[in-house]
Amino acid sequence: xxxxxxxxxxxxxxxxxxxxxxxxxxxxxxxxxxxxxxxxxxxxxxxxxxxxxxxxxxxxxxxxxxxxxxxxxxxxxxxxxxxxxxxxxxxxxxxxxxxxxxxxxxxxxxxxxxxxxxxxxxxxxxxxxxxxxxxxxxxxxxxxxxxxxxxxxxxxxxxxxxxxxxxxxxxxxxxxxxxxxxxxxxxxxxxxxxxxxxxxxxxxxxxxxxxxxxxxxxxxxxxxxxxxxxxxxxxxxxxxxxxxxxxxxxxxxxxxxxxxxxxxxxxxxxxxxxxxxxxxxxxxxxxxxxxxxxxx
Length: 296
Description:
Blueprint: H1 5-19, H2 30-34, E1 35-39, E2 44-47, E3 73-76, E4 78-87, H3 88-92, H4 100-124, E5 149-150, H5 156-167, E6 189-194, H6 199-207, E7 224-227, E8 236-241, E9 248-255, E10 259-262, E11 270-283, E12 289-292
Parallel strand pairs: 1-9, 5-12, 6-7
Antiparallel strand pairs: 2-3, 4-11, 6-8, 8-12, 9-11, 10-11
């Protein structure tokens, strides 16, 4: 049977139906817990997050807006794509069902790429070029509102230090003014993020209620745990979930409807079916994250 536009259109409809079936877990995906999804309307977006975590103040005279040390920053959208090869004979012979697993994997690959971008931000957050809105590295000891950087390996003592630093985070107050504590930890859910090399230590730290001769575990269920193979070293992180704002950003510009990228036909036996999208990720609020380089 020759390939015609009707068959290609029918294949497009069938493939889109498979992609439209959401068989992924209904709970939040990991990146959704660490990054705020923002909608972009252009090639880039400009952000200035400094005043987003301030508290209430007494209204005595004219209404005022707190003037903070804010360095605006821009996140540029990038182009990404994913596609699969489809043989014209499979269209002609109505064997499209064999592509269902490939299509579902294509869909999962996009969510996995979001997660890759987020983990790459965390791993790179110690570098001088990984700037937060205040112009400092995202993980730094020199933030005006408090240090969110450590160097120790994952242990009960160093985890306690991380939590203490998050509790002690202050508002980014203007020069010459006293900074009030943010006190956001009690309203959030801490998450410990680490690689497989820290998995056993992390589980003992958070998942075991009684430590035998050491008594009750004071850190039992203190934080949720995410272990990811994308962290190959000893670095570890504690981030706060459950707040209207997140430590990181995932900026989504556009996503095309899945379609034929190239159509199979007389000139070529296979075609490409897929989609392209424009998005990127970036840093938001370092006050909501703590990272340890673990000596790396």
